[in-house]
């Protein structure tokens, strides 16, 4: 189910994890991208987002608003293709047409969120806001009305609106409607119909539908025969569109080497993407890779990942933080810290066992 607040959190997590993995100080990054007035035309979406949420700087929503507004208003008419240099006069980023086009798309989305955040955040609980447009045939509004009923578990009404939205070409509605048919929410179970809807949504490029089709072929669900190779094709398409779980599954395929040629290089590429996109298992595997790999060994980075996950109460990570402090892996030996984390480990175990 679409959740705007969750999507914003995903963007923030992605940026923070990206900076974390590449050992980039948010303050230094912010300084670089704001050091030249022309940079705003290349990285305005990023600069505005940094100001809006205080990444590498103090939160300044007025400044964020000015950046979003000015760039959207001017439609980025200024010539781009600027080369950006760091303090040592070394070329670090080339602002080409691809970056320009991507920035233009992103900034419109972020500016819309910025301006209408209160309305957008409330829309899933605000029936009246969308009902008029939905009744007039707007497929996006019909989809949100469907969501409103779905959240309230009125699946019959949700199906009614998802059907209308789907008929209007909304690929998100097609996907959710497919889920309803597969899991019998408001309709009789119909796996064939579910598969057809997933496929139609996937043909429209919806990453969740692509991943779902991968799952269908992997497990032999929705009237398909089990086909791990076909599953990989869909997982890869979803991964390329940024679907985090699919990125991790694609990495697993390359690590296993059972259905496609084994490739440590491609495993690392996709596992790292999944880690940056917030997949905990991928982050754990990345940390393990940095400890054990002979060529790319980086115990300090491994420790940082384990410490981050340990602070999120991931038991395996807490165990590794204990070991790192005890043995001096990626950090200085510290028996007291090792003991403190050891106590936290058992505290987490006792808490989980009492639930």
From TrEMBL:
SMART domains: SEL1 (SM00671). It comes from the Eukaryota. InterPro entries: ISR_Activator, Sel1-like, TPR-like_helical_dom_sf. It holds the Pfam family Sel1. This is Skt5p. It comes from Rhizophagus irregularis (strain DAOM 197198w). The lineage of its organism: Eukaryota, Fungi, Fungi incertae sedis, Mucoromycota, Glomeromycotina.
